[in-house]
């Protein structure tokens, strides 16, 4: 090769080289342009949408539970309180790295749980969220926290929450009620005052990584929780205790499976005690498998036919309407047909020229029928309504029902219902309605709305008292008359088991028949007694109701002795002056 | 030839302090800037690790710092060595890298259960495929220079193709389809620059397609990746989910970014944040400003590299300069286009920036060689 040819060769290959290098440069340029195009698209045109969906992916809102308020008895003793516990949350995909089997056997030991349940929760080892255990107490929580901090175990996290405890147990359980696993009130004041007790939960918005750990440079936006208010009940712990003992004893004595004792202050509607059977134990709710009939508060949620105790209202209404006077008499026979139905006295006896007081003393059905018939249906039902039957008393407890009152004009009403209603049959009421209506007799004619919460204590320390709602429904003179009649009637009855030798009280027995399929159930009754004292200025009203007693049938046999025992114990406890001291 | 010249030629390393100002300033700036950006970005991307295991985080950051320093040193050293001196010795390097690649396929040598990409020695672990890139660049460029007169012949082309094919197949066997395609690109570039006939050159992309098909046939997961790229609903939690995360990170950055260290996607949302997805971290924290600076820098690297190739004194230098700059920028653009969702996930790191010692050191050595070719070209023009 000569120098010359090399030159020309180099020249042509040089231009070929330039062409090929330019080709490569062009290809690179295309890729650079494509890259810039994509980046501008992503970071300029779609930045908003992409950044929003990245934000949604990372953002978690966690609720910070507010401390639920306490429920206290009248004397301030605690009946329901919340204490801090933790929910144990696991990321199974991280737990795997620390050894799933190892973690399960360790947790089973410190949580005292079966390993099977834990391994079920950790079954999906690719997931990053599962709840391992709820309501982990302080000591196991401390151990778990130690192990996480020392990196001995991982993929676990504790979220603070609270656990409701009921130190009083069955005592007043129906009034206090209970909360479910999520801390929401289910019955009693726990439900009725759920909003006040709960307060305002807070929340934390934060950015989390896929395993649920907070991102240090991410968002952290907390909003503090506002704690719930506490409640002071009208329930007097001492009286409640007496009522619980007496209802328990009465059930055992008379072979009954259910009943209620309600004690109120007729002057202001304060429920001092409300004891029912069957009752539940709020300390072991998990034993009830979600629902039990014993959760129902029979005093407000179950209806019954009141029977003879209702004659007081018939009589008071007729006196107030001035249809009869204290000295009126009637001559109806012991067995009487009214609008095609036969009504009879319990003893089927006829009492000629029977006075109104002896209508009460003998608990005469035909006597009550005579009174109601003289009033007429319209006026009778006006008074039934005034006494509050057929609608809720307004007591601050969850689950109160209306009762069933047929009035003239309703489709199922027959004229014969007036007769049955006059002595408390074919009308369904709740015990609290009876108590509320009876308070009007005790306090001089005012219907008082019963209440179980005296005051609401706010987290900042301020106190709101609950209102006392009163409405005059009877004239004062009417009440004076009916009280005197009741007193005389009660003292006419020989061997009256309701009268205490120590305290002056009056009231009325009731023996209600229980309606079943197609008629009344024989020998199945609800025995009750409602009374109040001391007579000078009644401050205590007691209702005793025993369902289906197996030993004894009549209110005078079954409920009266319980009422007397209640009077003796409660009046002594309250320091009410006895007869001998007057 | 006088005795003096012959004596000088026997010396392989020829330090020349006077030549410092003669180093190409554009190339030098790029070679310094990109690894420093990488050091900052990788340290930021490792913040989650820093929170969980501060000791490991400290050790790895220190390691990265040392490797960067060593890389800069090797770059300067390489810039002092006349590239023509590698010529005949490139066979040795080629043979060593083939040996390493074969060794990887022996059970128990490679690290872990997955693809066999890493070679462990008691002192260091490195990726032989990175060394393969350098050795192929040197050997094929040298060969092209030596046989420039017969470059059009099928025999010469066939010989070169055989040299190319051996490491390519060994890398496909790891399997590492992405790197094997980069290796083929190196061969294609040198073929193109050396003046190989077009009808011969067609064989290289054809081989690339065949390599791809074989690899996909042997490794069904690669096909799944392609399918999930084409239809993300097929695999919402797998590859498509990971690919989507890089887009979310880039989009979150917007124009100016969230600020250094303030990115949240690196907290286990991004797949391989310090390595393959490092651009997503840069994009989230530095915004479009930072990502476009990176694109511009790599484009400048290609332009400068091709300019150096055009002015290199011989075919060896032309092929080597074009091969180095094209190979590096192709990797960069493939990585950028993967991260921005235009092409399927391949597992190609971003040169100089992604965490990875072997890649960084080899890339900086290549930059040193490129600096040396630039200097040689300038000196030959001065003469």
Provide the descriptors you would attach to this structure in a database record.
heterodimer, A: 582 residues, alpha+beta, Penicillin-binding protein 2a (Domain 2), Beta-lactamase, five-stranded antiparallel beta sheet, 19 helices, 22% strand, elongated, B: 383 residues, mainly alpha, two-stranded antiparallel sheet, 1% strand, globular
Could you explain how this protein is built, in words?
The complex is a heterodimer of chains A (582) and B (383). Chain A contains 19 helices and 21 strands. Chain A has helices at residues 3-45, 47-58, 92-98, 100-111, 115-121, 138-149, 173-176, 188-192, 194-198, 237-254, 298-301, 311-320, 356-361, 365-375, 377-386, 415-422, 431-442, 476-492, 555-574; strands at residues 59-64, 71-72, 78-90, 130-136, 156-165, 202-207, 220-223, 230-233, 258-265, 270-277, 329-330, 335-338, 341-344, 354-355, 446-448, 453-457, 463-465, 470-472, 506-516, 519-533, 540-547. In chain A, strands 2, 3, 4, 5, 8, 16 and 17 form a 7-stranded mixed sheet that branches. The model of chain A is unreliable at 1-10 (pLDDT under 50). Chain B has helices at 3-9, 25-45, 47-52, 54-80, 90-104, 128-146, 154-172, 177-194, 198-201, 203-218, 220-230, 239-253, 278-310, 315-339, 357-382; strands spanning 119-120, 125-126. Chain B has one domain. Chain B has a two-stranded antiparallel ribbon. The model of chain B is unreliable at 1-10 (pLDDT under 50). Chains A and B meet through helix 1 and helix 2 of A and helix 3, helix 8, helix 12, helix 13 and helix 14 of B.
Q: Kindly report the name of the CATH homologous superfamily of the domain at 237-282 and 295-581 in chain A.
A: DD-peptidase/beta-lactamase superfamily
Radius of gyration of chain B: 21 Å
The H/E string of chain B reads HHHHHEEHHHHHHHHHH
The largest sheet of chain A is: 7 strands, mixed
Q: How many helices of chain A in DSSP terms? A: 19
Biggest sheet of chain B: strands, sense, closure?
Answer: 2 strands, antiparallel
Uncertain stretches of chain A:
1-10
Strand content of chain B: under 5%
| Mean pLDDT reading of chain B | 86
- Named CATH topology of the domain at 237-282 and 295-581 in chain A: Beta-lactamase
How far apart are the first and last residues' alpha carbons of chain A, in Å? 150 Å
List the chains of the largest interface with their residue counts: A-B, 44 and 49 residues
Total number of strands of chain B: 2
| Low-pLDDT windows of residues of chain B | 1-10
Q: Which structural class do you get from the secondary structure elements of chain B?
A: mainly alpha
Rg over CA atoms of chain A:
38 Å
Outline of chain B: globular
Summarize model confidence as the mean pLDDT of chain A: 90
